[in-house]
Write a structure and sequence with these properties.
Elements (H helix, E strand, L loop, with lengths): L4 E2 L9 H7 L2 H10 L10 H5 L3 H7 L8 E3 L12 E5 L2 E7 L5 E6 L5 E10 L4 E9 L2 E4 L2 E4 L4 E4 L21 H4 L5 E2 L5 E2 L4 E2 L5 E2 L3 H5 L3 H13 L16 H9 L5 E3 L11 H4 E3 L20 H4 L3 H4 L8 E2 L4 E2 L5 H4 L21 H4 L10 H5 L2 E4 L3 E4 L11 H4 L4 H5 L5 H11 L10 H10 L5 H8 L6 H14 L2 H6 L9 H10 L5 H8 L8 H10 L5 E3 L2 H19 L5 H13 L3 H14 L4 H13 L3 H14 L4 H11 L13
Antiparallel strand pairs: 1-21, 2-6, 3-4, 4-5, 5-6, 6-7, 7-8, 7-9, 9-10, 11-14, 12-13, 15-16, 17-18, 19-20
């Protein structure tokens, strides 16, 4: 354990080390905003295709190539010839200008009408969405989209007809294309948000997912290729690219950089090949995103599911099933699966059982029926964005016997809706009497942890220490233990700070937050120098309230560097309300009330419906003696959130006025 001298919590004065590491936050962020982008040696897909014609032909009509396109007649699938869409008192009209430009005229709930020229196009099927420029440089994804299968307009969120002053309106910060979406629909993208002017000056090498979005900048490859004819020299590593697609781990992480639910640490597109956990914080199997047993629930984009699978554990990569340039499956139907799951097997994966899977003796459904498709039972689907069916990539065996315990759906009763999980469990017992797949499942432990993490702590500790389980499962168990808040768990699981999996290490660092600062700081000091950024940043966050009198120089440097990475991460997302919530909380810990108040004010400017940020502004004003300012802030908060009981109670406490229990005006 590292030798440190710690002051007890609440001791007067902040550690000079932490003060020096954090006092210049604003200056650091402004520097990051103003710093020029590092030049990238991107060439553009046209240059690649000049040599790699076959790959280019496969790519050019793919969903990757068409992920973001110009608003031309060839690219737009929707009918802009005088069509309309209504949702309550919101009205959108779609038309063409005399020059053939696609136009959208939107009458919002406040009855203000604005006409926009379609800036560009998102996707191609089964729906197509359109980007509108609401002010110079700011691109917003419009919520009324075109169903390419039925030929109709529909609203992505028909139950949520938000007013223009709501943060969740299509013009709000959560639908800003520049910072929320574009990086995964472009190549070499930089958002270039200026926090002082609150403007974007975004750039990209090309729109759409081009060759270099996956392979990395191509200049070194081109330099070698142009010399090769005369020199015959051996190719450089990875043929000069920053990603070696022959290495499954690198290829999977490159796909996961977009096909995952995660929080980015950097702005725009990191250079392809940058390790995943140096650039993103992967979402764990949390409530609201995943079912308790790890099945997909909300839109989680594949990677978190795949990490749970036996296929991932055995070395299967995306390209074993998907054609990378066409972005299509390598075969039709069950043929994708039977390249491995068959009596012949596949020598690349020698652990496979050699038996018939694509036959009625296994499927117990008529050949050619939907029930005989592998994906029906092992890759259940959910619909997102209105009409886009997406499959669960955890490749799980149906477990209807767990339904009562986990509350999760199962493949059997998803199809047989008139039957119960108990019925399905009995059928599977009859079909597969010798199955080895009906024992304990991690979903039971996670379900218990969600319901009562204190009571489930022994199970969660056991799961977190189980090396046979996927890292994302173990990290989720550690996260649930953190919610229990028992310092003894932090002590008992200290060894996980050195686990091989960065997801586990990061979660283990966060678990140490429940320990007293004098015990926590020595434990996580080495994590400040972890080889993975996500772990280092977690350690920096966990050190924020540790009052350290002194430490060896190498640890002080590591602390400074880790804080700088955390600050840089926040500086890359200054148009996010959630970033300013984090900055406000950070300022509160440092007892910097003006900075905290300013951060929470930016939160409510971006999203006036984030009540917690209003509450903090009112409390800070009241605590610093500005009672008039507190009342004014509270009235502003209630203007945006008239039915919120927390704000109503605060007003009664400040003014003595009776609660307004009438419901707010209807949003219909």
């Amino acid at each position: 354990m590292t030798a440190l001298h710690c002051k007890p919590r609440g001791a007067s004065g902040r550690s000079e080390i932490l003060r020096r590491a954090l006092h210049s936050l604003a200056a650091v962020l402004l520097f990051l905003i103003a710093a020029p982008a590092v030049a990238q040696d991107y060439l553009g897909s046209d240059r690649c295709i000049a040599c790699h014609t076959e790959a280019g032909e496969a790519w050019e009509d793919s969903h990757h190539a068409l992920a973001w396109t110009e608003a031309t007649a060839d690219n737009i699938r929707a009918n802009f010839d005088g069509t309309e869409f209504r949702l309550g008192d919101m009205h959108a009209r779609f038309s063409l200008s005399p020059e053939g430009k696609a136009l959208v005229s939107v009458t919002e709930r406040d009855q203000v009408t604005t006409e926009y020229e379609v800036h560009s196009v998102i996707g191609v099927e089964p729906l197509q969405q359109y980007i509108l420029e609401t002010e110079p440089g700011r691109l917003q994804s419009f919520d009324v989209v075109w169903d390419t299968e039925t030929g109709d307009w529909f609203h992505l969120y028909p139950e949520q007809n938000y007013a223009p002053d709501d943060g969740l309106h299509w013009t709000g910060p959560y639908k800003t294309w520049n910072s929320r979406c574009a990086a995964c629909h472009a190549t070499g993208f930089e958002a270039n948000y200026d926090a002082q002017t609150r403007r974007f000056d975004s750039t990209q090498v090309e729109i759409g997912v081009g060759c270099e979005a996956c392979h990395g900048p191509g200049s070194a490859h081109l330099d070698w290729a142009e010399r090769f004819e005369t020199t015959q020299e051996a190719p450089p590593a990875a043929y000069g690219f920053t990603v070696d697609m022959s290495q499954p781990a690198q290829a999977i992480e490159q796909c996961a950089s977009c096909h995952s639910r995660r929080e980015p640490f950097l702005e725009g597109n990191p250079v392809p090949g940058t390790p995943y956990h140096d650039t993103y914080n992967l979402s764990l199997l949390r409530e609201g995103a995943y079912e308790a047993d790890g099945q997909i629930l909300d839109e989680v984009y594949v990677y978190g599911s795949f990490l749970q699978s036996k296929m991932y554990a055995e070395g299967v990569s995306c390209s074993n099933c998907h054609l990378p340039h066409e972005a299509e499956l390598i075969a039709e139907g069950n043929a994708v699966c039977t390249q491995c799951h068959s009596p012949a097997g596949n020598p690349e994966f020698p652990s496979l059982p050699l038996q018939v899977f694509d036959g009625p003796e296994h499927t117990h459904h008529p050949e050619g029926s939907d029930g005989a498709l592998c994906k029906t039972c092992h890759m259940t689907e959910r619909v997102y964005m209105g009409n886009d069916w997406r499959a669960d990539h955890s490749f799980r065996i149906p477990r209807p016997d767990l339904a009562a315990e986990t509350g999760a759906p199962d493949a059997c009763t998803t199809c047989h809706e008139d039957q119960s999980p108990e019925w399905a469990a009995e059928i599977l017992e009859e079909w597969f009497p010798d199955s080895r797949h009906r024992g304990p499942h991690y979903g039971e432990v996670l379900a218990h942890g969600r319901r009562d993490p204190v009571r489930a702590a022994p199970e969660l500790r056991g799961l977190s220490l189980d090396d046979d389980m996927a890292g994302i499962v173990r990290a989720t168990a550690i996260y649930l233990l953190e919610q229990a808040g028992d310092p003894s768990d932090a002590a008992d699981l200290e060894q996980l700070l050195h686990d091989p999996d960065p997801l586990v290490r990061s979660a283990a660092v966060k678990l140490q937050r429940v320990a007293p600062a004098m015990e926590r700081a020595p434990r996580i000091m080495q994590s400040l120098s972890d080889p993975v950024r996500s772990v280092r940043m977690a350690a920096a966050q966990s050190m924020l309230d540790a009052q350290i009198a002194s430490m060896p120089g190498r640890y002080e440097r590591a602390l400074r560097n880790a804080f700088a990475e955390w600050q840089a991460s926040m500086g890359s997302r200054l148009d996010y309300p959630e970033t300013h919530l984090q900055m406000g909380g950070m300022a509160l810990v440092m007892r910097n009330m003006p900075a905290a108040s300013g951060a929470f004010a930016e939160v409510t400017r971006l999203d006036p419906q984030l009540v917690d940020a209003w509450v903090m502004q009112v409390r800070i004003a009241a605590a610093t003696g500005d009672e008039g300012g507190a009342r004014r802030l509270l009235e502003q908060a209630l203007e945006h959130n008239p039915g919120d009981m927390t704000l109503q109670i605060m007003r009664r406490e400040l003014t003595g006025e009776a609660l307004d229990l009438l419901p707010p005006p209807s949003g219909d």
